[in-house]
Design goal:
With 494 residues, the chain is of the alpha+beta class. It contains 10 helices and 24 strands. The protein has a 5-stranded antiparallel sheet, with no helix packed on it.
Amino acid sequence: MIVSTPGVYECYNQSGQPANKSDPLIIDLSTNRRYRFSDTQNKLTVLGCDTVTAMTNKQGTFKSGCITYCSENETVDLAKETTCSGRGWCQASIPKGLQELNIGIGPVVAVSASLINRCALAFVVDNKSFNVSDRTLPRFEDVGKGEELVLDWMVEPDVTCQKAKLNQSSYACGKNSDCEDFGNGPGYRCVCKRGYNGNPYNPKDGCQDMCKGPQRYRPGKRGKGKGRCEPSPLGIGFGVMAVSVFGITVTASVSLRMRSHKNVVKLIGVCLETRIPLLVYEYIPNGTLFEHIHQDKSTILKSWEDRFKIAAEAALALSHMHSNIKPPIIHGNIKSANILLDQNNLDQSYSAKVSDVGTSFWSYPCGVAHGKELFDTKSGESINMIHRFISSMKGNALSDVIDFEGASDDEMKRVEMVAEIAVECLDQRRTNRPAMREVARRLAVIHRASAVEEVEENIEEIWDAEKPYPREISAPGNECEQCMSSCLSCLGMD
């Protein structure tokens, strides 16, 4: 509760004599024991030069105050004061549980030159709203005004939550509310449960859920601060199937943390009518990237632009998992069989959607997945693809493993750029691998020629992801920070 109270002041004329003086300030809350001066928000504040202010209670069990000073022939500009040093102003704390204040003010010894034609002013104020930079050393016209201070209040004085709950007829907390013991003296108050707001003292309606429909409440950092509602997590599908068994794989438990993303297969709902609950995902009509790589009849991969687009969008989905989800989700099973191809009915273009957030340690890392989606060996023979691919890059013989038939000079240059990214992702040193958001950004730029507007949208999405989380960090307690953010970590192990 915020109330306005006067201050206590003394003003001096040109001769240094008191010209305007208030009585000592007495604020007494003892007649209503539900109220206390807030010890966390209020401060005794003094403005003026060479002034001493004393603060006590009626019983004399508490005494405090502060002293200000100003150097002779020095101009004090409160707008430039960044700390409460006592120079032109000072502050003192209010003790816990206080119900009465008696405040007096006066010069330190004798009236100094700094106080001539000026005033000294003391008041109790809400320190959160008070800004000394907005004030000046007080003059005659600045005194006699009210200042806002904060009062704490409780439902019942001298009654704890434990005691209050024993008498439900007088217990004040309503629906979806919690009881909190009052910190500023004995008593209790009611507050809405986390994720609810409203009137915690209303016995019928009480506190209402802040999040509507499929949303869920996300508390602030470390359980403190202002929380927010966010969309319910949407899952990642399993292969090209529309239904995945809940609980059979780690996919089901991990996917529930995912938020909606255009390049991630969406969770539609949960079917509870079967003996084992089933997760229902959106239907992706065009199969997996693996099928198109190994099908001679595939028309999608005949276009280099489609290949660039698939690589950029798959990287964007993984960047979303690493940067937008807290704690981050590491796919652990990224491979061409888990990249699905959707089709836009408006322009008949194709887009990539990542599926199956599993934990298989025997899948391709991101660098290899990008290599597979863009490149395939001419012969199709069974080889150690990673070693041959890296060797071809070192020996400037990329054409030995990539079929450049039908590719323009510009497309060949961009293929080489993608290949360089893949090699960086396959670096044996974890610290040398680029973060997934960096991979997504670079691939979006490489894909620029076919869809400039879409590339700009993708880059903007990556930047937006970095704003609330400037660094990709691991979950609390996980010391492997680089493992959580590097592109090779999609493999799930180093």
